[in-house]
Amino acid sequence: MKIAMCASEMVPFAKTGGLADVAGALPFALESLGHEVIVILPGYRCIRQAKLKLHQAKEGISYVVIGNNIRVYFIENDAYFDRENLYGDKTGDYKDNLKRFSFYSKKSLELLSEINFKPDIIHVHDWQACLVPVYLKTLYKDKPFYRSIRTVLTVHNIGYQGLFLKEEFPTLELDWSLFNMETLEYYDKINVLKGGMVFSDVINTVSRTYSKEIQTKEFGYGLEGVLRKREDSLFGIINGLDYSIWNPETDKFISQNYSTQTIKDKYKNKENLQAICKLPTEKEIPLLGIVSRLAEQKGFDILCEALPAICKMDMQMVILGTGDAKYHALLEEAVKKYPKKISLNLKFDDALAHKIYAGSDIFLMPSKYEPCGLGQMISLRYGTIPLVFKTGGLADTVDEKNGFVFDRYAQEDLTATIVKALKAFKGRKKWTELIEKAMQCNFSWRESARQYTRLYEQARAM
Predict the structure, then answer these.
(1) What pTM, to 2 d.p., does this model score?
(2) Which residue in 99, 165, 281, 378 has a CA-CA distance of 20 to 30 Å to 408?
């Protein structure tokens, strides 16, 4: 199959979040299954500064080759993309984002014709690329080259929708008849994500449970009605994990490599983590790890409420991340009260993150909502047992066979589940068996790519 992927960010070229990781990994996995893949990105300043060996496809279009033969094309326009950041600055989103990404979307479609790459599927990601399916079925629908091309939209987080003032609609060069409640209009504003949902052949999101959750008022962010109408074309595929990076057998950041055959070596990482974090180096005390953005969405409201009760338990906790000042202050206060219980690291530290995944016994991830989540998949690979709230991708990857789950979002339920996990930790033989099961879980990108292939086939059949 021929696949063109349109995304606003992709590692290693440009990144602000998890979308970049998906766009960076999925093309390789698809290529390994025999598909012909190209990727189209905006040509940001950071790409030019990276000193890549860029080839010139034509004026305003450059590319690099990755993998065996994946071409990554960059749509250049200094007025739109020669900026310090991808989407905005400290004052907020760039005011001309609608112009920037409508330009990117049109140029992406034109590029396909110019390089004579007629894809079976255009796979677009999030609102920044959502105008591609809109334009394909409106401005370009009568052009022979574009007939029979199908589109798949992946929604990574429905909270980001691309909302713009009605007065900007002429920027899109679309007929005003499309500004209505069935297509692009949303409470008298333009909603680009909604347009993508309406015009794409297939919609998917990054876990099966999240695909159901976003059809409800609680999680749909106002678009649940649109999604319920598209229910038959809405799917969920969990993101994969790059096991070349997250592998305790080869991880260079951890003090002792280990596998399912050498689980005892995992505890050397625990001792190392305790020493680094200035916690008592006691093997028998269960160590809880957190690597997260410190925000309400990630469960820090109920975690902070539960901390006094948790800190009375026989346990230690290592927290790594930054986020809302409110939670910085609450956690710093907790450290003052319980210095031998909590190690707080308010920073981004990749090496320490690896050490936490390897050295902790239990990985806390009580997110209020989590479209997919990678932390729980990483912790499973390292035999660090996840404890999660039953939502989104957490519900799809963690159950009683490989972790601990609570299904009512309340500090009492979180506390009770931690008590349950700490009790289980004392049963050494069963705990070791649990570690083995966790480490055998497989969330490789190859498996996700197979599911995407089936999704593409469904789109082609429409």
Answers:
(1) 0.90
(2) 378
Whether 48 and 179 share a structural domain: yes
Q: Are 236 and 372 in contact (CB under 8 A)?
A: no
Question: In the numeric block, which tokens belong to residue 370?
Answer: 């989590």
* Structure-token pair, residue 232: 């038959």
End-to-end CA distance of the chain: 16
Cα separations in angstroms, 113 against 4, 110, 145, 147, 190? 12, 5, 7, 12, 28
Residues 264 and 220 in one domain: no
In a domain, 322, yes or no: yes
67 and 214 fall within a common domain = yes
Q: Kindly state whether residue 202 falls inside one of the protein's structural domains.
A: yes
Looking at the fold, whether 92 and 54 belong to one and the same domain comes out as: yes
Sign of the torsion angle spanned by Cα atoms 45, 292, 239, 199: negative
User: Could you tell me the residue range of the domain that residue 174 belongs to?
Assistant: 2-240+446-460
| CATH code of residue 367 | 3.40.50.2000
- 245: in domain: no
Structural domain count of the chain: 2
Same-domain status, 398 and 450: no
β-pairing, 150-155 with 121-125? Answer: parallel
Report whether 133 contacts 196 (CB < 8 A). Answer: yes
Query: Are residue 236 and residue 270 in the same domain, yes or no?
Result: no
| 254 in any annotated domain | no
CB 47 within 8 A of CB 109: no
Tokens describing residue 3: 């696949």
Helix (H, G, I), strand (E, B) or coil at 365: strand
Q: Which helix (H) or strand (E) holds 358?
A: helix 350-359
Could you list the pLDDT tens digit for every one of the 462 residues in the chain? 999 999 999 999 998 888 998 999 999 999 999 999 999 999 999 998 888 889 999 999 999 999 999 999 999 999 999 999 999 988 889 999 999 999 999 999 999 999 999 999 999 999 999 999 999 999 999 999 999 999 999 999 999 999 999 999 999 999 999 999 999 999 999 999 999 999 999 999 999 999 999 999 999 999 999 999 999 999 999 999 989 889 999 999 999 999 999 999 999 999 999 999 999 999 999 999 999 999 999 999 999 999 999 999 999 999 999 999 999 999 999 999 999 999 999 998 999 999 999 999 999 999 999 999 999 999 999 999 999 999 999 999 999 999 999 999 999 999 999 999 999 999 999 999 999 999 999 999 999 999 999 999 999 998
Residues 182 and 197 in one domain: yes
Residue indicated by tokens 């112009």: 99
Do 230 and 371 share a domain, yes or no? no
Report yes or no: 456 and 121 within 8 Å, Cβ to Cβ: yes
